Amino acid sequence: MDLTKVTEFVKKQLQDEKTGHDFYHGQRVAHLASKMYLQDNPDAHTDSRVVAIIQAAGYLHDTIDEKICANPDQVLADIKELLPQVGFTSLETKDILFTMQHMSFSANIEHHYQLPVSGEYVQDADRIESLGAIGIARAFTYGGAHGNVIYDPKIKPQKLVSHDQYREHTETTINHFYEKLFHLADLMNTASGKKEAQKRTEFMRNYVTEFMAEWNV
């Protein structure tokens, strides 16, 4: 399936994005999610429809993110019109839209949504993007864009219990590692996702350990 219309739509929607949720993030999520799906399901290489669903959701997922989208409802309506034009059936379109609307970390703090299999791979890939070297870069980019300090020992990490608290509480970028990022590996859905998340989390923990050692010199 040709996803050119999808990628062009994402490029237009995220052309001014500078917090780590840009087109290239969506592209990496799409590629990683489909790669992991094929790793876990080696007999599915001919199932191009599932791969297309995964890639479309991966590319599109942040176009309706409340953090960066001024009018998610309008963008969602545009996507509902776009997907059938690309060639997705009504059921495939429903799966893609459900994944996009229910995959975020904040949406699952108070209630865990069961995603379709395709959505589980997209969710894992998106969370893996918050880990490792890429994850560190994105964390500091996002924190800087929102005026968060790098670290303040007087501001302690909090246990996240609700969507509103997650969005509104005072945080530092280093606290974000303790509050969210170090927990993501335990939330993975898929075999390949769990393996990659553990590797990247170890890298990230080593980084934060070094950061704290340098801070406390």
UniProtKB/TrEMBL annotation:
SUPFAM superfamilies: HD-domain/PDEase-like. It comes from the Bacteria. This is HD domain-containing protein. It comes from Lactobacillus helsingborgensis. The lineage of its organism: Bacteria, Bacillati, Bacillota, Bacilli, Lactobacillales.
